[in-house]
Amino acid sequence: MAKPATRVDKIPPYLFARIDKKKDEARKRGIDLIDFSIGDPDIPTPKHIIKSMRDAVNDPKNHRYPSYEGMIEYRKAVAGWYLRRFNVKLNPENEVVALIGSKEGIAHLPWAYIEPGDVALIPSPGYPVYKISTLLAGGKPYIMPLLEKNKFLPVLETIPESILKKAKIMFINYPNNPTGAHASEAFYKKVLHFTKKHGILVCHDAAYSEITYDGYNAHSILEFDKDKNHSIEFHSLSKTYCMTGWRIGFAVGNADAIYNLGKLKTNIDSGVFQAVQYAAIEALSGSQDCVAEMKKTFQNRRDVVVEGLTSIGIRVDKPLATFYIWAKVPKGYTSEGFCEKLIEETGVVATPGNGFGDEGEGYFRISLTVNEKRIKEAINRLQSLKL
Ligand SMILES: *Cc1c(COP(=O)(O)O)cnc(C)c1O
After folding, report:
1. Which atom of ligand 1 is nearest to the CA of 248?
2. Ligand 1 probe mutation, 236, 240, 242, 369, most atoms within 8 A of CB
3. Residues lining ligand 1, judged by CB closer than 6 Å?
4. Is 387 domain-assigned?
5. Are 342 and 201 in contact (CB under 8 A)?
């Protein structure tokens, strides 16, 4: 048999293998698992969005290859949503590109900008795709640690000059997965100033921009890069409209970056099924009541989880955004050790923080994608835990 390419060999081993094994073992013992490890909303896609997909599926014109960059109607819907939501004007012709989920765009962007040996600045803990796609493109990830004492924001001043010379892109992600942290206007301005000075393209992953609580509204980086000088922003319909399975998102921002990402994509994929694009147009342009309702559901769950964790002596701050709770493991445990104990003794599954990078060691992540009744059941079980 042929040997796989070294670029595939270089992909770090799957970190959750041990936890998956523990889950399997527990299931075999007949334990009813309550799984908080899945970053995928359990709430169905709103009905009006499904209906527009159903109508579009019946139209043969949607059965053919879609346009690579996304239908102009979809790109206009994105621009309309941006203007209403962030008061940022986008040219749908050259500042918007459709993505087959934002993961696809994030994974391809380094291929458009990174030469072998170039550096990408990557947050850790973080969404694993930033680092892996950099490695696949032959680039060198430079880790920007996100530490609690810095509110999970990178400290740009600590990045060495020699790294900055080779850095082409920087990934940031706020509201943040896995920490639940959010970023201020001042932070975005600082990042833009810093990256401009060093000729770096900023790639902002805004997958959770709409999952916010207690009156907090997240920013678009384009609010502060008004001329779209050197930033690109990734958005997803997955989390906002509970559409993870539909595979649609978009990138917006600097026209060159959108062009280069699009050019690469035309040689790899053939766009998003038009019926899905019509559903996404309905999602972005229709009533946003479904988003408000979903936020209410997650906010209630957040409160129950935070109260529950506090009651067993695990102190956590209430995040203002995302559907994740990022908590410190009790003293004396590693991330994996604690998560294994949880499964074995209570059937509750959380994600070990080190799965998001070494800087996540000492933490675990709870996803609020479990209904309130089951959350309460999980908390009851946690009360019996001897820490
Ligand atoms: C879920 C997620 C994405 C990807 O979402 P898609 O379904 O591919 O649109 C991107 N970034 C982060 C941080 C996520 O959690």
Report:
1. 9
2. 236
3. 39, 101-103, 127, 173, 177, 205, 207, 236, 238-239, 244, 249
4. no
5. no
Q: Do both 281 and 209 map to the same domain? A: yes
Close Cβ partners of 150 (under 8 Å, ≥ 6 residues apart): none
Number of domains in the chain: 2
Domain range spanning residue 64? 47-285
Q: What is the pLDDT of residues 98-151, one digit of tens each?
A: 999 999 999 999 999 999 999 999 999 999 999 999 999 999 999 999 999 999
Tokens of 185: 């206007």
What is the torsional sign of CA 99, 105, 108, 112?
A: positive
User: Residue range 24-36: average pLDDT?
Assistant: 93
Q: Given the DSSP bridges, would you call strands 140-145 and 119-124 parallel, antiparallel or unpaired?
A: parallel
Tell me, what CATH number does 345's domain have?
3.90.1150.10
Domain identity same for 252 and 369: no
Q: What's the rounded mean pLDDT across residues 24-47?
A: 93
Residue 151 φ then ψ, to 5°: 60, 30
Name the residue at shortest CA distance from atom 2 of ligand 1: 207
Judgement on whether residues 156 and 194 belong to the same structural domain of the protein:
yes
What tens digit of pLDDT does each residue of 222-246 get? Answer: 999 999 999 999 999 999 999 999 9
Distance of CA 160 from the midpoint of ligand 1 (Å): 29
Give yes or no: residues 198 and 336 share one domain: no
Query: What's the pTM?
Result: 0.97
Residues 147-201: tens digit of each pLDDT = 999 999 999 999 999 999 999 999 999 999 999 999 999 999 999 999 999 999 9
Would residue 302 be called left, alpha or beta, if left means φ above 0 and alpha means ψ between -120 and 50 degrees? alpha
